[in-house]
Amino acid sequence: MGRKSIASRRRVSVTSCESNKEAYRLHLENNLMNKVAGRMTTINADSTTLPNRLEQKFDRILMPLPTRADKYIGTALGLVADGGVIHYYRHLTAEDFEEARSAVLNELNGVQGLRNVEVRKVREVGPRWLEVVADLHLSKN
Ligand SMILES: C[S@@+](CC[C@H](N)C(=O)[O-])C[C@H]1O[C@@H](n2cnc3c(N)ncnc32)[C@H](O)[C@@H]1O
Prior knowledge:
By secondary structure, the chain is of the alpha/beta class.
């Protein structure tokens, strides 16, 4: 589910962060075209600054930068609410899904408060190159 379809649901508010100025401008246009601008807070910044800028914690975090999600997992963990879920998208070199699954679980080894992880294949990006998403269910206890 993308941010637009989440924002289309009633009583849901969505915060989105985009560092690129042109992509941010297009994001604002999309918010209007999809009639979700009233429920979207759209921030033009480097996402690593968010834990210091925002007091709010989030029930669900999407990480749609599969090439570098490993660099940003610490930021996402600083923003997720107790009991929240992080959708960790990753591009990985692997022979098959099982190898990609092991690689992503290995990357997440040591994440504090990880209660449950489900890994799914999203698509084949290229030969021996898969996109997977790991749904991280987190709790402080
Ligand atoms: C693969 S695109 C995702 C496109 C679209 N935002 C989506 O969710 O479908 C990744 C986006 O992350 C943005 N990005 C990369 N590094 C970032 C960072 N440190 N903080 C915020 N946005 C970043 C890029 O400018 C790019 O638009």
